[in-house]
């Protein structure tokens, strides 16, 4: 689906079924973009595993659009160059 492949600015959430966590991580990382992602789960072990495996500038767990001005923010792949916020933004 196009909504799962393009970088869409929203608020937009795409929900999809999957058979294994590894399959979902591979699918997420196969995108040419990597600005932000979100994980909705009750299992924090799964959330930690997936969040460390996804190549995205920010990974939200059970929330959306939560930022800390002291933490650097930026994308991966075709979703950005460099970092905003934090000390990294001054470089």
Automatic annotation (TrEMBL):
Domain Aldehyde dehydrogenase: 1-90
Lineage: superkingdom: Eukaryota
InterPro entries in UniProt: Ald_DH/histidinol_DH, Ald_DH_C, Ald_DH_N, Aldehyde_DH_dom
One Pfam family here: Aldedh
Molecular function terms, GO-annotated: oxidoreductase activity, acting on the aldehyde or oxo group of donors, NAD or NADP as acceptor
PANTHER family: ALDEHYDE DEHYDROGENASE-RELATED
Protein name, as recorded: Aldehyde dehydrogenase 1-like
Organism lineage string: Eukaryota, Viridiplantae, Streptophyta, Embryophyta, Tracheophyta
């Amino acid at each position: 689906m196009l909504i799962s492949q393009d970088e869409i600015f929203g608020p937009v959430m795409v929900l999809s079924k999957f058979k294994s966590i590894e399959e979902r991580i591979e699918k997420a990382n196969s995108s040419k973009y990597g600005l932000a992602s979100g994980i909705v789960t009750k299992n924090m072990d799964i959330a930690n595993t997936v969040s460390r495996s996804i190549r995205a500038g920010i990974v939200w767990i059970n929330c959306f659009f939560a930022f800390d001005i002291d933490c650097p923010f930026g994308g991966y792949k075709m979703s950005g160059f460099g970092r905003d916020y934090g000390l990294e933004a001054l470089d």
